[in-house]
Amino acid sequence: MPDAPQSLRLLNGVARRMRWQAFVRAAYVALLVTTVVYAVVLLVSRLTGLIPNVFTWQSLAAIPVATALLALMLHRRPEVRDAARAVDQAAGSKDLYLTLSLLDRAVGEYHPLVVQAAEASAAKIAPARVAPWTWQKRYWNACVLLAVTGGLLFLPQLDPFGRVAANQLVSLRKDRLMESRKETQLRLAEVKKKIDEQKENEDETPTAEAIDSLKLALNKMQPHSKNENLEVLMDEQKQLTEAWKQMNAEQLKNLLKAAKQAEQQFGTNQELLQKLSKDLQEGSLDGLKQELQALQDELQKLAKTDDPVEKEKIRREIKEKLKTLNEFAKKGLDSKPLNAALQRAMQQMDLAQMEEMSPEALEAALESLELSELELEELAQSASDLKKLEEAMKAMQMAKKLNDKDKLDGKNTLGFKSMKEYEQFYKEMLAQAGQCDGSGDGNCPGCANCKGKGKSGMKGPGTGEGGLAPENDAVKNEFQSEVAKSAVTAGKTLFSQKTQGLGDKGIVAENYRSLATQVKQGVSDALEQEQVPPGYHEGIKKYFDTLAPAKK
Fold it and tell me: How many helices (H) and strands (E) does the chain have?
C-alpha cells in the first residue's frame, strides 16, 4: 500500500472494529449452541439418571469458556480490503479506498491522484461512523436461554433405571478405597521408619545388651569360685529380668500361647495354621512371610489376567488365604496392626470385583500386603528377642547348677556365639554329672532316676511297688534345708486370739479372699525376681488363680 498514513490509520481502525463485531456474532451463535447442548444433557441426566450427575452451579462456567473457544475458532477475520469497501459504502467515495488498497497491484500514472484524494477525505471520516457498535435485540435470546438453563439445576434427580443409586454406590466405595489406601500409606511410612531405626540400633537394645553381658560373665566363670560366680549370675539375672519387663508383655504372652490356641481354636486350614504356630513358638515368622510374599505374587498375576474364569479362580484363592492369615493374626498373634492391615487387604479385594475399581483396588491390596509384611517383620523381632531371653534364662539355670558342683568353667565356652550353644553345652555337662537340666521334658540323662532307668528301686531295677522305704537316721546324706529367697505369703502372724461364739456370716470367705489376693501378689513378685523362664509364668499364675473360693 502506498504512503498514505491517514488513510491507513482509518482502514486499520475500521478493520479492528469489524473483527470485534464478527467475534460477537460468532460468540452469540456459539453461546446458543453450547447452552442448548448443556440444557439437553442436564435434562437427560436429571430425568433418566443415565448420565452421571456432575451438574452444579460451578459447571455453568463451562458454557462461557466453550463459547469463547468456539467464537475464536469460527469467527471471520476481516481484512483491509473489507474495511475499504465499508468506508467507501459509508462515505460514498465510489471505491476510492478500495482502489487505494489495490494500488500495489495496479499499473498506471494515476497513483498520486488516488492517494491525494484518499488522504483529503480520510481526515473527515471516523471509524465509529463506518462500523458502529450496535447491540442487537436478538442477542438477548442467549442470555434468556442461559438463565433458563441455570434454572434447570433445581430440577430434582429422578432414577427410573437405578443408575443413580449404582453410581452413588461406586462413588462411596471409591471414597472408602481412597481413605483405606491413605491409612495404609501413612502406616507404611511409619513402620518403615521404625524398622530402619531398629536396624540402626540393633546392637543397643536392652535384650542384646543383657545377653552380651551374660555371655561375657559366663566366659569369666571360675570352677572353684562358687560364691563369686553366683553373685555375678544374680546380677546378670536382674539385667535379663529388666530386659523382659521392657518388652511388650501382652504381645509376648500371646506369642507363647500361639501353638496351643492353634490346636484348640483354629477352624479352617488347620495344617497351615499349626505350621505357622509351630514356627512362631520357635521364634520364627519365616513361614508367614513366605505366605504373604506368595499372596503378592498372586495379586500381580491377577492384575495381568484377562480370562474372567481364571480371574475369579485366583481371586477366590487369594481371599481364602487372606482369611486364613487374618485368622492366625487375630487368634494366634493377637496383633492389632497386622490384623488391621490384613482386614484392609480383604476389603480391597472385595472392591476389586467391580470393574470400575479393579486396578486401583488391586494396587491398594498390594500396598496392604506390603504393610502386613512389615508389621510381621516388627513382630518377628519381638519373637526373636523373646526366644533369645528364654534361651538365656535356661542357660543361666543350668550354669547355676554346674556352679553348685564346682564345674562351671568359662574357658570351655570362650568360642560360643549364641545362647543356644551355651544351653546345649551345659545340658551335656549336667548329663555327665547325672543331674537333671531342668527342662522338664524327661529326656535328659539326669532324669533317669525319675523314670527308673538308672539306679535300682527297693526291689531291683524298674518301677517300685509302693510302701515306705526303711530309714536309718545314722546314715549321712546330702540333704540340705533351703528357704526360698522370695516371699510368696502374706507375711508373718504377729498376734492371734481365740474366742468362743459364732462368727459374722461370710467373714471367713472374705478373709480367705484377702489372703489369697496377697499370696498371688507375692507370687507375681517372686516370678519377677527368680529365674523362672517367662514361658512358665502363665501356668504358675493359673494355679494360684484357683485359690479363690468358688461362688455359689
Answer: 21, 0
